[in-house]
């Protein structure tokens, strides 16, 4: 019995030492580095407004369609910044809500897999997606259906609309690597990017795509700036 105990302790010590030796290096590789991206646009904002007379108790009387949102210092909001080639690190599980007859957020990133489509409005919406790599969805989300879970496995940007409320427009970016969406100031921070050279990609619904190369170092932050053109 005592022998077995000693053997167990010895084994535990060896395992512990192995873990310690393996730990810091591995944690560094897993933790990776951070990319701070800033996206700017020198042009004018494009915000369309539309009078509406349907479901006004939930939708209001005016729809605001934000196609190009420009904040302070020319910061461009709603741009997807991603590192599609970075293996082993992922964007968060995405969720999109239908609130005030708008898709919130307007642009969402998700890891290939499942996304929750919520209906906070509690009225009839009809999800209609436009995609090529993934199957398109065209289905009603009745007022009692608070959440629908849908699956998008293939990387691409999917346009999402509602057949009940013609002005509703949103985008779901299915990205295999780490990704984020720029805030009102055009900034986004992408954490846990594996160390190494990567291509950073920016996508905006009307201003298109750009890429840049960056080198990420473990435990460090690298900055990258994009200026979108018409
Ligand atoms: Cu709707």
Question: What does the secondary structure layout of this molecule look like, with pairings?
Answer:
Layout: H1 2-31, E1 33-41, E2 46-51, H2 56-59, E3 62-68, E4 80-82, E5 95-98, E6 103-104, E7 107-110, E8 113-119, E9 125-130, E10 138-141, E11 147-152, E12 156-162, E13 169-174, E14 179-181, E15 187-193, E16 196-204, E17 208-216, E18 221-228
Parallel strand pairs: 1-18, 5-8, 7-13
Antiparallel strand pairs: 1-15, 2-3, 4-14, 4-16, 5-6, 8-11, 9-10, 9-12, 12-13, 16-17
Copper (II) ion binds next to loops.
From the alpha-carbon coordinates, what is the Rg to the nearest angstrom?
A: 22 Å
Largest sheet geometry? 5 strands, mixed
Helicity, as a percent range: 10-25%
Determine the N-to-C terminus distance: 77 Å
The molecules bound to the chains, other than polymers, are:
copper (II) ion
Strand adjacency order, main sheet: 7-13-12-9-10
Could you spell the SSE succession in H and E letters? Answer: HEEHEEEEEEEEEEEEEEEE
Q: CATH fold name of the largest domain, please?
A: Immunoglobulin-like
Structure class: mainly beta
CATH class of the largest domain: Mainly Beta
- Uncertain residue segments: 8-29
